[in-house]
Amino acid sequence: RKFDQTSKLRLDSHSKAGRRLDEHESWALMFVTLDEERWLAMSAVKENATSSEPTAQLPTEESRLEGVLCLPNGYEPVPYQVAGHMYQHGKQGMLRRRGEESGVLFKPVQDPPKGQREVDFYQSIFPVGTDSPGERECVTRLRQFLPQFKGIRVLENGVGRHDYLCLEDLVEPFHRSNILDLKMGMRCWDDFANEEKIRTEREKYPPQERLGYRIVGMRVHNSKSDSFDHYGKQYGRGLDERSILSGLRVFFTDMTGLRCDVLLAVSTRLKELCAWFEEQHSLRFFGSSLLVLYESASNVVDRRCAVDVRMIDFAHTYWVGADETDSLDENYLCGLRNVIATLDQLLTTAESSNGL
Predict the structure, then answer these.
(1) Helix (H, G, I), strand (E, B) or coil at 295
(2) Residue of 349, 335, 214, 322 whose CA lies nearest to 273
(3) Is 59 exposed, middle or buried, given 0-12, 13-18 or 19+ CB atoms closer than 10 A?
């Protein structure tokens, strides 16, 4: 948005000339174009008489040609999303209200059946969706490991109306958070996947069937540049059973060295989650992620306690039938136990080197 008109014309001319824009140029062109269109269309914007959300009155043809969806009025892409579908290349991604710290993120509901599965899951957990006392306790304990679900909201994105999950913004309480996204499970495809889906998932990261997890994205604060270093899915796919330890060490290291306090807090939290998985028999999680966050700012009060661990992404999560409730979700448990073992290994190595 800081680009001037000359910059916009330069980028636009490159695009029309057929030169492939890099990621930063594409984002700049998209937002300058959309801001210009919004300004010209402001007189045509009216409040929807039947909705509390303003209707986006933006030209849509150019956005379709460019493969970019228009943003709903008053919303912007989440700047700290490290993995998953992002608001670019014709895809919808996580949004937040512009200029506000509302504590809520807006996740687009995926096409059926995946989107409805995730909606059904959240609605079954918030509030409790079972009458069984045993299941009620199980669900209540699970809530602490999930972002709080605040309902469904319908937004206009310039192409049409779309449903969004309203979820707790886990990053907002932090001043400067390091974020790690781990895709969990020995397999990420569910029981309804076809052969092509299974083949594609297996080819993404073969070690996952042994490790039970992989790094799909992370950001780590760089104290020298006072900015964040970003590591995408290709970084995670470049790690194997021997190098995954070093890969995770990068995330848990800052200017003071390896953050043993964070490692201990995260490991403790994961062991609590593991205890829940070892007792519950009703849910199966495929393709779900673990989000790990910790405070990197050194001037924050009680920095040592600023750690959070949550489960996210439930488009392939199922309540199992009564004939399957005698077994555990070993697919997820394998990965969870291995993550804990890796973190404990990092912690033990650090304590040994420090003579503790």
Answers:
(1) strand
(2) 335
(3) middle
Specify the residue for token string 């399957």: 324
Q: Determine the Cα–Cα distance for residues 128 and 136; give it in Å rounded to an integer.
A: 6
pLDDT value, residue 34: 38
Please list, in sequence order, all residues whose beta carbon lies within 8 angstroms of the beta carbon of residue 226, skipping any fewer than 6 positions away: none
Containing H/E element for 28?
Answer: helix 23-41
CA angle 349, 215, 303 (to 5 degrees): 60
Q: Helix (H, G, I), strand (E, B), or coil: what is residue 199? A: helix
- Give φ, ψ of 325 to 5 degrees: -80, 5
Least confident of 125-134, 183-192, 288-297: 125-134
Q: What angle do CA 274, 277, 279 make, to 5 degrees?
A: 115
Residues 7, 28 contacting (CB under 8 angstroms): yes
Query: Is beta strand 177-184 parallel, antiparallel or unpaired with respect to 289-295?
Result: antiparallel
Beta carbons of 97 and 75 less than 8 angstroms apart: yes
Angle at the Cα of 292 from the Cα atoms of 289 and 298, rounded to 5 degrees: 160
- In tens, the pLDDT along 66-112 reads 444 678 889 999 999 999 888 776 678 899 999 777 899 999 999 99
Residue 90: its pLDDT value, please?
66
Half-sphere exposure (Cβ direction) of 331: Cα atoms closer than 13 Å: 19
pLDDT digits (tens, 9 = 90+) for 225-265: 999 999 999 999 999 999 999 999 999 998 889 999 999 99
For the stretch 117-141, pLDDT in tens is 999 999 999 974 455 555 567 888 9
Phi, psi of 71 (to 5 degrees): -80, 140
**Global pTM value:** 0.78
